[in-house]
Amino acid sequence: MSFDIALILDSIPKMLMGIGLTLQLLFLSAALGLTLAIILLLMRISGRWYLAAPTMAYIYIFRGTPILVQIFIIYYGLPQLDFVRDSIFWPILREPFGCAILALTLNTGAYVSEILRGGVLGVDRGLKEAGAALGLSTTHRFIYITTPIAIRLALPAYSNDVISLMKSTALASTITLLDMTGIARTIVAETYAPYEIFMSLMVIYLILTWMIQRSFGWVERCMSRYVREEV
Amino acid sequence: MNDGNSDDIIHLENVNKFFGTFQALKNINLSVRKGERVVVCGPSGSGKSTLIRCINRLEEHNSGTITVNGHELTDDVKNIDAVRREVGMVFQDFNLFPHMTVVKNLMLAPKLVRKSSRSEAYETAMRYLERVKIPEQADKYPSQLSGGQQQRVAIARALCMNPVIMLFDEPTSALDPEMISEVLDVMTDLARDGMTMICVTHEMGFARSVADNVVFMDEGEIVEMNPPKEFFDNPRSERTRLFLSQVLSY
Amino acid sequence: MDALDGWWDDYFWGSVVVAEVFVVALILTILFGLMGAAAKLSGNRAAKAIAGGYTVVFRGTPEILVLLLIYFGSAITLTAIAQIFDPEIKFVDLPPFWAGSFAIALIVGSYATETFRGAFLGVAPGQVEAARALGLSKLQTFVHVRIPAMWRLALPPFGNHMLSLIKDTALIAIIGLEETLFVAAQAIGTTNKPFTMYIVVGVIYLAFSTVITLTVMVLEKYANRHLEIAR
Ligand SMILES: Nc1ncnc2c1ncn2[C@@H]1O[C@H](COP(=O)(O)OP(=O)(O)O)[C@@H](O)[C@H]1O
Ligand SMILES: [Mg+2]
Q1: CATH topology of domain A5-223
Q2: Contact present, B59 and B6 (Cβ < 8 Å)
Q3: How far is the CA of B45 from the centre of ligand 1 (A)?
Q4: What is the Cα–Cα distance from B11 to B17, expressed in whole angstroms?
Q5: Domain range summary for chain A, segments of one domain joined by +
Q6: Could you tell me whether strands B165-169 and B87-90 are parallel, antiparallel, or unpaired per DSSP bridges?
Q7: Is B180 an interface residue toward A (CB < 8 Å)?
Q8: Strand B87-90's sheet: what is its strand order?
Q9: How far from each other are the two terminal CA atoms of chain C, in whole angstroms?
Q10: Secondary structure tally for chain B: helices H, strands E
Q11: Is residue A135 within 8 Å of residue B161, measured between CB atoms?
Q12: pLDDT exceeds cutoff 50 at B23
């Protein structure tokens, strides 16, 4: 048993061929998931039970089950249902890529909406009252006071969720997609060299994680001008 | 207006307020004339904040009537909006918007509520910042100012809406002692200009020199209301006397 | 629903496996978490560096990669060792149960490291000083003041770690653990009802998550009983 450097050097470019797919999965489902999360959040805090209750059920279900199970239900399970096969979404749901995006979006949307809600709840009540005392409407208070402060508060947790999402994209390899992990698994099946392949891929993912953290750190610093320079 | 004196700009009649089963305000009657300066004092938890927060409906009273500048406070959103446009409020812990610079704090409400143009709002803001004597801090963030400066910004922010009434809820309680006078000076200035003010404070010197009437509250009731000379030199109720001996003892 | 006839006991035994993995992994997670936290808080630079590397790597790489690395890596190593004694042997592996429990405990343990470390540092120094000033010994202070204060702080995030653990057990099906997801795959082979079969898995996991959430709620209530408002 030896550590095969040549194999590593040979495999890294091959695995990097999948980085495009990994990043597509990440950015698409992050963007769609954030949109979904905002909609869920607004429903949740609307104060109307017929909007809030389904949202809570949704969040409970998607946070309470493994994402792998969600992926399998969507990719393997949905085709069992006739109305899915007859629907206009079938061209998307027939493809593993569409299924992976859908599963990742639905999953991250549930988590992110809770993160955003944490931010909204973290906004000091006194600030909202000050807005009310100045005569700002509920909508104006939400847009100009609650939202900017909540975003700042939610940012660290959100950055962690984006990292989780990035890690979850690797599960796309379980439904035949050849993202970086999918390619690594095929290489290991051929070469039977799990240490070399999987460990070098881990390094690649670590670099991605580091880049996500750096980007969010930068955004956070920009948004924290007002708290940083304390006297 | 109700049966109150037509000079009354604020009129509370038999106002009761409950938090759950706890009664925070008990049968409050209070009239304030235009231009009158009222100081409210009383032990902690006696309902002072609740009282003035009912006047701009940050709290909803449960029974009785509250009329402010001709608008009766009910569930009617129109009246609430009208009252909040005409009543300024200053909080104990400033409540400046931390993510906006000082001048943006001052411009926000005039732009959104009064629909002022940017330049109008900016001019108004700078005028009031000069009035509270910190125009040079306009582009700083609140966290970069001292407590006294922050509170003066908060007062200027309220004034930018051209209120006819100002409410103060212990505006100096969160301040270091050396900053109290800079805030009281601004408030005294405001009083001289004829602003109608209700001011919760334990600064008895301020009450003596500025107030037309001093209200003493205890356990949700107005125990006593008198001009300062009478109030301090000749308190009627035992509870007032006890309270005064505590706040004036050192 | 008829499709499920005959599969209920398989699902039941699959659930038992999930529970077993959970318990084993939970114990290991606490162990790794405490060791990691102790290393990070120790004065020893090497220990600090190792623990630091541990948390960076296992929080920054996909769970599935860690799992595959440990399972196939250990199999390669074990096979090589076995072949020294008997060249005829083709394949020896760690049972998926143990490889899987170990892998997910390593992952969640890296998060628990940070939780335990934060909880230890979060105990107000005044409390500890007060206990010492009252004449309690160092050990007494640790047992009677630090530990109770720590576990109050660690409980809410640790509840989330337990939820991660239970959901991560699903991944172990990928390396052949016969838990619910594996049962579903078998059932689909004969019934061709993937949606039904995977939904059952989802419901089972939702039940596990619910039980964990409720347990944590009860524990939190107990841990914070001194904060209840006296009326
Ligand atoms: N939002 C609230 N919910 C429940 N009780 C409250 C609330 N606000 C105030 N109270 C109670 O009402 C009483 C009066 O409070 P407050 O008006 O703030 O007193 P003060 O300003 O005189 O110190 C206190 O006993 C306080 O605990
Ligand atoms: Mg108060």
Answers
A1: MetI-like fold (1.10.3720)
A2: no
A3: 6
A4: 16
A5: 5-223
A6: parallel
A7: no
A8: B87-90, B165-169, B196-200, B37-41, B213-218, B221-226
A9: 52
A10: 9, 10
A11: yes
A12: yes
